[in-house]
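Structure first, sequence second, as always.
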């Protein structure tokens, strides 16, 4: 019998372990994220910002929020989540409730795996309008979360390149 919950069982995540801890963001990474949002037509718009509770993710989220506001954008919500929770539903609803133009994610791969599945299965969240720091651009993540959960999501690598989830793969390019 299939479990209707979007929560991944620990064994599903351990198949891809060890998962890295998020590293501090870089200036080229932040610059590329801002450029991706602008290229996507979101300049000056509202974003909902989600992050894990580790120091690197919190710092990346704060740096993004400062840069986004300085560019004339609005941060509609800032939502954090734990690595492990009963369902992540409350956080998912808080992240999607303001109906932002886009979402930005700074998180550990494990926390984002669980949160993205909850978002996809329980809200109107759209991965095509979601942008992530390098920490969520881990090539194992699309396989771990399952088909179609992250397809269309984009982000920045630490050296300022772009990654995109396409048909379950992380594809990196040097341009935006």
């Amino acid at each position: 019998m299939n479990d209707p919950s979007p929560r991944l069982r620990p064994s599903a995540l351990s198949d891809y372990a060890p998962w890295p801890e998020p590293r501090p963001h870089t200036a080229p990474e932040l610059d590329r994220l801002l450029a991706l949002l602008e290229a996507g037509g979101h300049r000056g718009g509202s974003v909902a910002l989600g992050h894990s509770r580790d120091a690197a993710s919190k710092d990346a989220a704060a740096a993004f929020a400062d840069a986004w506001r300085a560019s004339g954008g609005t941060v509609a919500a800032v939502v954090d989540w734990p690595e492990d929770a009963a369902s992540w539903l409350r956080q998912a609803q808080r992240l999607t409730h303001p109906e932002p133009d886009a979402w930005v994610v700074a998180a550990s791969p494990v926390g984002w795996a669980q949160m993205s599945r909850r978002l996809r299965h329980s809200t109107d969240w759209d991965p095509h309008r979601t942008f992530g720091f390098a920490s969520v651009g881990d090539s194992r993540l699309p396989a771990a979360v399952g088909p179609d959960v992250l397809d269309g999501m984009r982000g920045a690598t630490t050296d300022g390149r772009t990654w995109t989830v396409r048909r379950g793969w992380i594809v990196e390019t040097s341009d935006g």
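Margin note: The longest strand covers residues 74-81.
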